[in-house]
Design a protein that fits this description.
This protein has about 100 residues and is mainly beta. About 5% of the residues lie in helices and about 30% in strands. The chain has 1 helix and 6 strands, in the order E-E-H-E-E-E-E. The protein has a 3-stranded antiparallel beta sheet with strand order 4-1-6, with no helix packed on it. Strands 3-2-5 form a 3-stranded antiparallel beta sheet, with no helix packed on it. The chain is globular and about 40 Å long.
Amino acid sequence: MHVDAKHPPGYILGLGALILLDDFTDASGPTRFHPEMVHDQPTLEDFESRALRLVAPAGSVCWFNAGAWHDVLPNRGGAWRRAVLIAMGRAGIRPR
């Protein structure tokens, strides 16, 4: 579980967009997001019980706050799970 950009509370440093090239299914291992914007890492129990799963067909786009805690489940199926990730940051933010 991680965030792409640590942010001060109430301040968005960046946005991400996942453009799904393949279907994201329970079998292919969906990306999961914590439903609340929290600064400190949620407990594993909280994340596991509340995470929202990105299950969607190819061609879908998922926008997310780069400060959202997220992870990905293992791919347990035979299908690909490809996506294009676009990261956008505020002016003055240096990419790493």
